[in-house]
Design a protein that fits this description.
It contains 8 helices and no strands.
């Protein structure tokens, strides 16, 4: 059974790696459909937690999330199977391009140029879709929508200190920790009042 799950992880992430263009964010909606909706390996909330961790770590988002999912299901063997499945398609495609296509041939080939232009709008849609679903799952409403908008504008501003995304990852982690502590204290206070009654 374990080998079967490892094989399923490999095949699932191989398909994701082979048929997704546009990098990590473009892959998220496809990964979610496979992991949460199709195979039911993770619940939606658990997937979002794993995604948050994968984004916070250095490295490629798709590989990070595949390693996290593989580890969650089958430990080290699951991580290796999922990571290989994610990496192998890109490696094979790049190897094929390096062997058969030169940069000049790609630039001057009208058909290839049109194919890549046709893919671009699809990539934009693949990036926007997980942003919307993640915002809904994270319960971002009218009261909290200002936070991601302000952070996005500050990063986009290219100002030396405030445009660094790492700053907001650290601040988000610190803010989340203190928010969690506050919620825990409120819960204890409520339980204390109930006991007093």
């Amino acid at each position: 059974m374990m080998n079967n799950i490892c094989f399923q992880l490999f095949i699932t992430f191989f398909k994701i790696g082979a048929f997704t263009f546009g990098g990590g964010w473009a892959m998220i909606s496809i990964i979610e459909k496979e992991i949460v909706d199709k195979h039911h390996w993770l619940a939606k909330d658990e997937f979002l937690d794993q995604l948050a961790v994968a984004q916070s770590l250095p490295g490629i988002l798709a590989v990070n999330i595949s390693v996290a999912v593989g580890d969650r299901l089958k430990g080290m063997k699951g991580s290796v199977s999922a990571a290989l499945g994610t990496i192998l398609p890109s490696f094979l495609i790049i190897l094929t391009i390096a062997i058969f296509l030169t940069p000049d041939l790609i630039k001057n080939n009208e058909i290839l140029s049109k194919i890549f232009k046709g893919i671009r709008p699809g990539v934009v849609a693949l990036i926007i879709a997980p942003v919307i679903t993640s915002a809904k799952a994270a319960k971002i409403g009218w009261k909290t929508v200002a936070i991601p908008i302000v952070v996005a504008l500050l990063i986009w501003s290219k100002l030396p200190v405030v445009s660094n995304p790492i700053l907001y990852i650290v601040l988000g982690g610190i803010g989340g920790y203190f928010w969690y502590r506050r919620q825990l204290e409120r819960t204890r206070e409520l339980k204390g009042k109930e006991v007093e009654k």
